[in-house]
Amino acid sequence: VIENKIDIDDLIKKSVNITGPTPPSKSKKADKKSPTYIKARKLVDDYVVIDFETTGLSPLDSEILQIGAIKYESNEEIDRIYQNIKPFRSNISKRITKITGLELEDVVNMPTFEDFSPQLMSFISCYTLVAHNAPFDLKFLLHQLNENNIELNQRIRVIDTLPLARRHFETPNHKLITLKDYLNLDNNSHDALEDCLVTNKVYQYIKHENNKIVQVSN
Fold it and tell me: Which SMART domains has this protein been placed in (predicted)?
C-alpha cells in the first residue's frame, strides 16, 4: 500500500517508467455508471482486509501490481488471496522494484486484472472492506472494474483505518509502517499481503480502544 500516497513514499510511485501499447478501448454503455463505494457506519466482525501494490499513484496511468486480501469472520481469518498481477504495460521502474521487490519476471506470466477480477470480486462478495487509506486502494479497484466493464450489484462498504488511527494512536504520523512499529510487528512493508496483516492488527487495536471508550461512557 502506498499510504497517504503523497505523505508516504511520495516519490515512490511518481518514478514509474512503463511503456507499451495503449490498452484497447472497450465499449461502454452510454448510461453506465462507474462503480462506487460508501463508508461503513460501524465497525464489524466479518470483513475483508484489502491492499494493493501499484505501479504508480494514479489509476489513470498506473495499474494494480499485487493484490492482498484476507477474509475474517468473527474476527478470525478464514481465507486469503495473494496474487501478483500482470500490468497491461510491461515495464516496472527500478524504484518500484526497490520498494515492492517486484520485477517484470515476477508478473509477466501472471493473470491480468481483467482475468483475475472474477475471483477477487467473488472473494469480496458482500463483505465490508477494511483498508488503510482506503481511497487510494478503492480508486484503483473501481477504476479497473470500470475499465473492464465489470458492474457491481451493490456499492462496496468500506472502513478506512487511517482516519480512525488518527483518533487512537499517539504517533508522529499514521502511516502504516509507523503503526506497525508502534504495535511491535515485524511484517514486511510494501507487500500486499503483509500490509493486510498489519492493517488488521491496526483495525483490531482500534476496535479494542473504541470498546473501552464505549464501556467508560456507559
Answer: EXOIII
